[in-house]
């Protein structure tokens, strides 16, 4: 189509790889100007270079309040007030309730929950006059729980509940700002590959067809839904939760 985000300005975190990278590339193809952020400066700048003049890279730790001010300031200076925020950056640490340390718990919550709070707060402040869309990446872990990812499940649960609160607040205040969550089961990305042993042949098989028994999808599968929620096509969707899990959760299989 090529113009589903024509004229829009988007901020995408964690855009150096995985889902964030695919979001940024797809947004640009659909007419958006994109501010890419990540702690991986080298890879982030490479993605921005692929896009060209419609992209700006900002090195960004999402758990930093001043970092968020810098991102939205750079976006405003270079392109204008953002219309879209995709909170995508996150960390995934293995650990059940019995073996997760307090330090690990605090690190995961600081990045995955507090980082998203800071981003949403900055986005609502920037968008409340003109309107916009916030897309928060959550997980099926927020809905069903994953025993071996205690802190991660908790952080994504916080994101999901916060998203509903933001949607309700913006509606009550009369802001044209929508806020929704996406809940994948598993995505083949550099972050998840070490945990699931995702081989290259697995990715190739998924690229060709969807395994009816499979639990892992590709970043592109997520990016297509992110695009829809970022666009005006979803203008009446607010405070909603979208699962991308190949029916895994409703089957009740851990």
UniProtKB/TrEMBL annotation:
GO terms for molecular function: glucose 1-dehydrogenase [NAD(P)+] activity. Keywords: Oxidoreductase. Its EC number is 1.1.1.51, 1.1.1.47. Coiled coil: none annotated. InterPro entries: NAD(P)-bd_dom_sf, Sc_DH/Rdtase_CS, SDR_fam. Pfam families: adh_short_C2. The keyword Transcription regulation does not apply. Belongs to the short-chain dehydrogenases/reductases (SDR) family. PANTHER family: 3-OXOACYL-(ACYL-CARRIER-PROTEIN) REDUCTASE (AFU_ORTHOLOGUE AFUA_6G11210) (PTHR43180), SHORT-CHAIN DEHYDROGENASE_REDUCTASE FAMILY PROTEIN (PTHR43180:SF66). This is 3(Or 17)beta-hydroxysteroid dehydrogenase. It comes from Paraburkholderia fungorum.
């Amino acid at each position: 189509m090529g113009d589903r985000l024509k004229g829009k300005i988007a901020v995408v975190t964690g855009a150096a790889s995985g889902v964030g990278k695919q979001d940024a590339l797809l947004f640009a193809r659909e007419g958006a100007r994109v501010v890419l952020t990540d702690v991986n400066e080298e890879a982030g700048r490479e993605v921005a270079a692929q896009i060209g003049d419609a992209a700006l890279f900002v090195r960004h730790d999402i758990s930093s309040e001043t970092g968020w001010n810098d991102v939205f300031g750079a976006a405003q200076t270079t392109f204008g007030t953002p219309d879209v925020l995709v909170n995508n950056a996150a960390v995934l640490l293995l650990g059940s309730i019995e073996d997760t340390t307090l330090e690990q718990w605090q690190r995961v919550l600081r990045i995955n929950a507090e980082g998203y709070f800071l981003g949403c707060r900055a986005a609502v402040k920037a968008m409340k006059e003109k309107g916009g869309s916030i897309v928060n990446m959550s997980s099926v872990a927020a809905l069903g729980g994953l025993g071996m990812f205690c802190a991660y499940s908790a952080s994504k649960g916080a994101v999901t509940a916060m998203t509903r609160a933001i949607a309700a607040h913006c509606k009550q205040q009369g802001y044209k700002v929508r806020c929704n969550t996406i809940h994948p089961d598993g995505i083949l990305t550099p972050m998840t590959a070490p945990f699931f042993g995702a081989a290259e042949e697995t990715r190739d098989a998924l690229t060709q067809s969807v395994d009816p028994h499979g639990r892992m999808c590709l970043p592109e599968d997520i990016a297509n839904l992110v695009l829809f929620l970022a666009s005006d096509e979803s203008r009446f969707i607010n405070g909603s939760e979208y699962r991308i899990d190949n029916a895994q959760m409703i089957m009740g299989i851990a």
